[in-house]
Amino acid sequence: MVVKKTAAKKPVVRKGTEKQLRGLEKKIGKVPKFFKELTVNDPGMYDLVIKMEDHIWSDGKLTKKTKKLIAIAIAASLRDQHAVRAQLMGAANLGCTKAEVEEALRVAFLLAGMPAYVYGKAQLDEVMKK
Length: 130
What we know:
Layout: H1 18-28, H2 33-41, H3 43-57, H4 64-78, H5 81-93, H6 98-112, H7 114-127
């Protein structure tokens, strides 16, 4: 009888970070798989990114809502589909309205051109179907 040894499957998320990741998803929307895997593959880097994330998103002179609108405009300017969708999902959690997002996208249009506006608007219409 031959017994196959199977390697123990490495966990996708480090134990104890699940709650932190759920909180992050509430703030920014869907957390990318590679970032979840970072909790196991490079926990030191994960911890540093979380610290920076907390520092950046904490209210200061700008509210979280204002920062989110800036993030949406930047992501649209970069035409990063995942980032736009994630930021839009987080925007809904912060109470951003569709009209506010559209205004932020108009600023992106002014500075980054028509493609940024069109790209962001298409994502907005898909995510916030109102």
